[in-house]
UniProtKB/TrEMBL annotation:
Gene3D superfamilies: Glycogen Phosphorylase B
Name of this chain's protein: Glycosyltransferase family 4 protein
Coiled coil: none
Organism of this sequence: Roseomonas alba
Alphabetical keyword list: Glycosyltransferase, Transferase
UniProt keyword Glycosyltransferase present: yes
Keyword rRNA processing: no
Pfam family, one: Glyco_trans_1_4
Length: 667
């Protein structure tokens, strides 16, 4: 029996042994008491699918070149790296799979065998929903079919079982859309060579947190010579961010709340189709499960449609309704071609846009504003809480413990992770409280300016935040332990691939942080190089040139471009395994069909709504639902939306009405 490694910040042990037949076995185990070479091992439990969940609590001894920290929960890996590649089942030349160093490899390797068991139920549920949607469409129950298709798309995007697109769902939505929204609204808009003077952007929802809405706001501001309008398909009662409202007003456009149209998804699709009739170009910035644009633009006629691939790591709908795909990075373009079946000739590049900016505060002044000692070397990360989710035995706080223990003058500040993080408490205690988590906030510029080093979120990167940090001259460090076929999960974007300090394992990550913490001139040099790369590709003339090329490609493209039977079947490569580990295991209750349907009852026709309402009431899924109880689910969604917005307006919390279009008006 041999111990291959004891590594990470948990006592993660990988043991290899040969049985009586000479076959090699590898197990990953959680160790609480271990004596190496002839003495006993005591295991709290074996890791489930090689995912270690324990912590070391007893004193360990050093043996065989392995350094063990006595009396603490953290154990150091051997100084000599033993990084190995694990072969990827994708079979692509040059893709070796994830690295084994630091314990990530065993976690991901174990997940390969476990993936089918974990996703079989979700895939079966998805297949059943797709079949239901097709059957309902064939019977003429178009509204119910559209709602079912939306639920199926949500299961596919959240369930991460290897599907990036669906030929069947696209065909169902195209059939419904052509039947229900088929009027030829504006054939003149589709003439090749028409100048783009008016762009209509379609969003599922606009929110203040994250880069999605900020990119649109900056897009409108940078493209100042054109008129820009916005249609929102599922904004509900959430206020539209003031920055977007102001940008649309300055561009001479209007905002249309499609979800308050009387009726269901088909009525919304018709309203959207009418709203964009006078535009020269439509751009979709939609969520993966939004079916309204697929219905609205299924039939010929109307302006060309661009799909912005802002969720390039997951399943989404919209292929058949789209003229041109806008890819934000090369890794996403590769997924489009390889996993979605998109014609490379239909793809144009459009990187994320940033505001050209200079520092408002020096680093010392920004630290002072935040109440941070100016002598502190500040490591900072900014992202939404799900991007810091635990990954097996590893979590984001633990990843930084080695560097923080080596450097008492360094502190990690994580904005957006949430102030209540019990899973981080042990790591924070290990470094004397120098790991601080804050809740999400919209005004984060001061944190970027205060940071000496920006550390990317993990296991899910935040590209926009990394770009914003780099734009003020802050060096960016990111960890990427996955295989090459999973590059879409890494922090890569046009012009900055060489500027971000990318590490393949925790040991290299710790070494890189240590070098930057101790060398201010190195921080300055890396930060300045990244700042110049970002300015060249993501601001000003460089970004506008990419935008003009996208407009020209879209106006000249044939419609529709989508070939028949082009979407590949779901895959099973390390990209899918990593996605399952990162975002696919957040509780089976999220995939309960009754829970999913409950949220969509208001979109169903009255007869179908009553039928499903009675069933959900009998099963207890409508219990304990506020002052009006189950009765509120009988209201149509458009009515709840209007009432909610009226209540906000009366409280003075509604979006500025000056840019809202009348219900039946076009932009």
């Amino acid at each position: 029996m041999t111990v291959q490694a004891i590594c990470g910040y948990y006592s993660f042990v990988r043991i290899s042994y040969a049985d009586a037949r000479g076959e090699l076995h590898i197990r990953s185990l959680v160790v609480y008491d271990i004596y190496i070479f002839g003495q006993h091992f005591r295991f709290e439990r074996a890791c489930l699918s090689n995912v270690c969940r324990g912590t070391a609590r007893r004193s360990m001894r050093s043996a065989g070149g392995t350094t063990v920290a006595s009396g603490t929960r953290m154990m150091q890996a051997p100084e000599a790296s033993t990084t190995q590649a694990i072969g990827c089942p994708c079979g692509r030349p040059g893709c070796s799979g994830p690295e084994t160093s630091g314990g990530f490899g065993p976690v991901l390797q174990g997940l390969r065998a476990d993936m089918q068991a974990r996703t079989a139920g979700r895939r079966a549920q998805y297949d059943d929903l797709v079949a239901q949607a097709a059957s309902l469409a064939r019977s003429g129950a178009d509204e119910e079919a559209a709602v079912t298709a939306a639920i199926a798309a949500w299961v596919a995007s959240a369930g991460t079982f290897g599907a990036f697109a669906s030929q069947e769902l696209e065909e169902v939505l195209t059939e419904i859309g052509r039947r229900a929204c088929g009027e030829d609204i504006a054939p003149a808009c589709a003439k090749p060579g028409r100048e783009v003077t008016h762009v209509c952007h379609v969003l599922t929802g606009a929110v203040g947190i994250g880069g999605h809405t900020r990119m649109l706001t900056r897009w409108i501001g940078a493209d100042s010579g054109r008129r820009h309008s916005v249609a929102l398909t599922r904004q509900a009662t959430v206020p539209v961010p003031d920055g977007l409202v102001d940008a649309v007003r300055a561009a001479g456009g209007t905002i249309r709340f499609v979800d308050e149209v009387r009726g269901g998804l088909i009525a919304q699709a018709r309203a959207l189709r009418r709203f964009v009739a006078a535009a020269d170009l439509v751009v979709l910035h939609i969520y993966p499960f939004d079916v309204v644009p697929s219905l609205a633009f299924a039939a010929p006629g109307g302006p060309p449609v661009v799909f912005l691939d802002h969720a390039d790591h997951t399943f989404w709908l919209g292929h058949r309704a789209t003229t041109t795909m806008a890819s934000m990075r090369e890794a996403g373009r590769g997924i489009m071609i390889r996993r979605r079946g998109v014609d490379p000739g239909a793809i144009a590049a459009l990187p994320t846009i940033l505001d050209p900016r200079e520092r408002a505060l020096s680093r010392a002044a920004a630290k002072e504003r935040l109440g941070i000692d100016p002598n502190t070397v500040l490591l900072c990360s900014v992202a939404r809480a799900p991007k810091f989710a635990g990954m097996g035995a590893f979590n984001y706080a633990d990843l930084h413990v080695p560097a923080l223990r080596r450097h008492p003058n360094a502190t990690l500040l994580v904005v957006g992770a949430g102030e209540a993080r019990p899973d981080w408490s042990a790591a924070a205690a290990d470094v004397g409280g120098r790991i601080v988590a804050l809740s999400e906030r919209t005004d984060v510029a001061t944190y970027f300016e205060a940071a000496d080093i920006y550390v990317d979120s993990f296991p899910f990167v935040s590209i926009t935040s990394a770009l914003e940090a780099g734009s003020v001259g802050t060096p960016v460090v990111s960890i990427f332990p996955y295989g090459e076929c999973a590059r879409v999960l890494g922090n890569n974007m046009a012009g900055i691939d060489d500027g971000i300090l990318l590490c393949r394992d925790p040991e290299a990550y710790t070494a890189t942080l240590s070098r930057l913490i101790t060398d201010a001139s190195s921080r300055e040099a890396h930060g300045e190089r990244l700042r110049e790369d970002i300015r060249r590709h993501h601001t000003g003339a460089g970004w506008l040139a990419a935008l003009e090329a996208l407009y020209a490609r879209a106006m000249a493209a044939p419609r529709p471009h989508w070939p028949a039977a082009a979407i590949p079947p779901p895959g099973a490569e390390d990209l899918d395994n990593c996605l399952q580990l990162i975002v696919g295991g957040r509780g089976e209750e999220r995939y309960d069909l009754s829970n999913l349907l409950r949220g969509e009852l208001g979109l169903l026709p009255l007869k179908a709504r009553l039928r499903h309402w009675r069933r959900l009431l009998g099963s207890g899924h409508l219990a304990g639902r506020g002052r009006f109880g189950p009765l509120v689910f009988l209201l149509p969604e458009w009515m709840k939306t209007r009432l909610g917005r009226l209540r906000r307006r009366l409280k003075g919390d509604a979006a500025k009405p000056a840019v809202q279009a009348p219900r039946a008006a076009a932009p």
